[in-house]
Amino acid sequence: MILSGELVPGQKLVQEALSERLGVSRTPLLAAFSKLEKELLVELVPRRGAFVKRLSPEELLQLYDVRLRLEPLGAAQAAASAGEAELAEIDAVLASHRDAVAAGEQAEIRLADYRFHMAVIKASGNGVLERILGSFSIVSKSNQRGILKPAEKSLAEHEALRDAIRARDAERAEAVMYEHLAEARAAAALIVAQTRPARGAVRA
User: Fold this and answer.
1) In the sheet where 12-13 sits, what is the strand order?
2) Quick one: which of 25, 65, 120, 168 has the most CB atoms within 10 Å?
3) 113-156 per-position pLDDT tens digit
4) C-alpha gyration radius of the chain
5) Cβ(150)–Cβ(181) under 8 Å?
6) What are phi and psi of 104, to 5 degrees?
7) SS in 3 state form for 87-134?
8) Contacts with 124 (C-beta within 8 Å, 6 or more apart), sequence order
């Protein structure tokens, strides 16, 4: 629900409504909130409740700094070691991404984009990397205010990445993933620069 945009950053998570929606009691729901807080997806505020995590511009930039260093590594490892099953999964997710873009379904585009990135990381065979990036990719996707690139451009970059992985070109796969994320990182850096007070400015 956070990934698809049904729950947006800053939104309060109403326990009663979510319990009914998900068919669970409040006890496992609270346990889930606690787990999601550790993954930067939920913020627990004393005496106020749980909220979908809203990253500050600085936090979003820091998150992209981490992804920019780890995901190209995963792409290179995927090109070097992915089996046919992993390659087929990347193709299948890419096909669903293509269909979502053609239909203009924004929620499905977000889901397909996330699934593609995770399929690539899974194909790397690096389980630690997969666990680290699983929640990072969701929280950055849910907080991409002002840095989303056109869906068609993102899809084309995913297709280029898939081609590099299938060609077993680890160097190219690493470069494509880096370039793919660097554009969003640059946009996040611009937002940070715009929100910081000008040097020498006097605070009221």
Assistant:
1) 12-13, 49-52, 42-45
2) 120
3) 999 999 999 999 999 999 889 878 888 877 876 677 889 999 99
4) 18
5) no
6) 70, 25
7) HHHHHHHHHHHHHHHHHCCHHHHHHHHHHHHHHHHHHCCCHHHHHHHH
8) 73, 74, 75, 76, 77, 78, 81, 82, 130
Residue-level pLDDT at 132: 87
- pLDDT beneath 50, residues of the chain: 202-204
Largest Cα separation within the chain, whole Å, is 61
For every residue of 139-190, DSSP letters joined together read HHHHT-TTTPPPHHHHHHHHHHHHHHHHTT-HHHHHHHHHHHHHHHHHHHHH
Residue 22: in which H helix or E strand, if any? helix 15-22
The pLDDT value given to residue 204: 44
* Per-residue model confidence (pLDDT) at position 135: 79
Q: What is the pLDDT of residue 88?
A: 97
Sign, CA dihedral 182-184-143-173, equals: negative
Give the rounded distance of the alpha carbon of 94 from its chain centre.
Answer: 16
Which two tokens mark 13? 């998570």
Whether 101 and 155 have beta carbons less than 8 Å apart is answered as: yes
- Closest alpha carbon to 55 in 131, 132, 147, 121: 147
The b/e string for 163-182 (b: 16+ C-beta within 10 A; e otherwise) is ebbeeebbebbbbbbbebbe
pLDDT computed for residue 191 by the predictor = 86
